[in-house]
Amino acid sequence: MTTEQRVFLAVVLMAAVLILSQMIPLTRDAQAPPQAPVPSVSTPTPAPAPTPAPAPNAAVPTAPLMPSPAAASERRPPQRLARVTTPLYDASISSEGGKLQELTLKYRGEKPMIITGELGPSGLVMSREGGATAQVVPMELSAETVTVGAGQPPQELVLDGTLEGLRVREVLTFRSDAYTIEIRLRVENATAATQRVAIAFPWSTRQAWHATPEKFAGQHPIEIVWESSEGRVHRIESLCDVPKISAEGPWIALDSKFYAAALLPKNSEFRLVAQAEDKKVCEAKNEPNPIGRATIAIQAAADLAPRQAWDGGLLVYAGPKEYERLRALGLQGTLNFGSFLIPQSWTGGQPVLPMAWLAVPILLLMEWVYRHVGNYGLAIILLTVVSKVLFYPLTVKSMRSMKAMQALQPQINALRNKHKSDPTRLQKETMELYREHKVNPVGGCLPMLAQVPVFYALYLALDNAADLQGAPFLCFGHLPSWVPGLGEAAVWICDLAAHDPTYILPVFMGVTMFVQQRMTPVGGDPRQAKMMLIMPFFFTWMFFSLASGLVLYWTVSNVLQILQQWYMDRSKARPPRGAAA
Description:
Blueprint: H1 3-20, H2 24-30, H3 69-72, E1 81-85, E2 89-94, E3 100-106, E4 110-112, E5 120-121, E6 125-128, E7 135-136, E8 139-141, E9 145-147, E10 155-163, E11 166-174, E12 180-189, E13 195-206, E14 223-227, E15 233-236, E16 245-247, E17 251-255, E18 259-265, E19 271-276, H4 280-283, E20 293-304, E21 309-320, H5 323-329, H6 356-373, H7 376-390, H8 392-418, H9 423-437, H10 446-463, E22 474-478, E23 490-493, H11 504-519, H12 526-532, H13 535-543, H14 548-573
Parallel strand pairs: 1-9
Antiparallel strand pairs: 1-2, 2-3, 3-4, 5-13, 6-7, 6-13, 8-10, 10-11, 11-12, 12-21, 13-20, 14-15, 14-17, 16-19, 17-18, 18-21, 19-20, 22-23
């Protein structure tokens, strides 16, 4: 789970406690000492997070994933670059193994996916006999520019090279409508002796990003994710704690919140590999530039007789985590919707009560609404309205039950005072009071708790929506650059994936929460109700740093709740038709 998901999980639990706190005095009355347990939402005691294990009988390849400095310093032809331009990204392909020297997505602005030398692929890496020296294959490029216009057919770039008697050909295919690069590889043994060759396509990143000096607008990988051949998605949530992994499966990825860099092998010979260099660099927080690497790769080994060739292929995806694009490639497992109330880190990476069952339909519905209204802010508002309409009967039932409990509170307090020294009598008369007025002590809470999973799924859908990046709601431009301390700040919400720079929306959310709390019927000890008034201030402070789209959803939900409560109060206060004035 991401940090924001954990924060919201805490919010859900606190909201549940807020709801259930209304029941505590009532339950205490109905079940005098020894006190009856109060229904509550609780989380299991966290166990140490298990480390994802490699697949059974999966030996970790001995061939190195990264080229050694000695091999890199040998006499080699000068590096050449081919410039690739498509409607979705710009890239530079190096003659050194066909690696991506640069890759900038044209997605909600320019989003670089590579920092040369610190984040990105190494290209085709090979070693003989599983030896200790891995080398990037030097190659010749068939062209210096490749342009794929919108609607044009795919274009290819061919790279040819030799390495220690091996002839290598790499064909890269670029498409105008996809963030993928298809790679077809052919390795031929041009010698008179059989050769065993290890082939790898690595993609590396820093193990620690805490000391990043530059502002990097692209991907900061935060975890390694892969799918095993059994269809289970595994996650390593800390790049500082990556065991050596070798497994069979359809893909492996370096994952961040909105972007993924994934390798998808097309040959059964390829294995998914991951490893880290040095855990100590993650602990050296004062080090200016940690150099430790975490690396994912797909790797294969082949025994080539003289004149024999080996053919392989893979797909590279480096792009936004839009659900439809990911699903088309089978990469939807990179979206981490987590589990309801149970972090996956407690269950070995496997979701229990997975929220994807609810969050994915909500995400698709938001996309459908957006296609019709053309504004993600409006789509979020309409989505929130739909959820409130669907749960209106439960909300009405909950409010009526809380009103009934509030009306009984004076009588309950009188019973308390009357039977202070006789708990059994207090319990009996309290239950008789409930039966006489046909009131369920938990009737106000259970309908509200039934809505929590859906509202949590709404939050997760918005939290994982890469589409909200750079998406405006009510954007009135930016302040002039000469305004002290606020130059170039957005006015008002120009990016639903970023926090509100003016803080107007979270403050308004806090106001609506306060009004909602004052209007909601509260039973129990009045002192508890007063203590709960601090919650709007706490929530407001917490929402200052959350994405505007999430705050908008929460604010609209509060406003609708206030309108529902006002309507019910007004209907109850209105005299029946035909009654005397």
